[in-house]
Amino acid sequence: MLSRAKRREYIKAGGSFCINCGSGNISAGKIESEGRGAWQSVQCYDCGSEWNDIFRLISVDDIILPEDDPMIPVVFGNKESGDGQTETA
Ligand SMILES: [Zn+2]
């Protein structure tokens, strides 16, 4: 297993070297995503290690909102508030 410190060092450096041997002779595959997560397989040509870089949603940028059709804010992910359904009679 890889030490935490080594992982942290790797992440801090933006994953620009081999997480095992430190070589820059690495190659990353294309980024795949599913749901809220994304990952990218990386391999080192020098020592043969393979691993996945994991990506998370940390921010949003370059947001373009429609000018004519402002959305009313909706609270997402609160379906089971236990309050029962508020049906408009
Ligand atoms: Zn390596």
Give a description of the structure.
- The structure is a single chain.
- With 89 residues, this protein is mostly beta strands.
- It has a domain of 33 residues.
- It is built from 1 helix and 3 strands; from the N terminus they run αβββ.
- The protein has a 3-stranded antiparallel sheet, with no helix packed on it.
- The chain is elongated, with a radius of gyration of 21 Å.
- It starts with a helix and ends in a 33-residue tail after the last strand.
- The model has no long low-confidence stretch (mean pLDDT 86).
- The structure holds zinc ion.
- The site of zinc ion has 8 residues, from loops.
Ions, cofactors and other ligands present here are:
zinc ion
Shape: elongated
Instruction: Determine the N-to-C terminus distance.
Output: 60 Å
* Helical stretch tally: 1
Strand order of the largest sheet: 1-2-3
- Low-confidence spans: pLDDT under 50, at least 5 residues? none
- Biggest sheet: strands, sense, closure? 3 strands, antiparallel
From the alpha carbons, calculate the radius of gyration and give it in angstroms: 21 Å
Mean pLDDT: 86
Strand % is: 25-35%
Could you state the order of secondary-structure elements as H and E? HEEE
Structure at a glance:
It contains 1 helix and 3 strands.
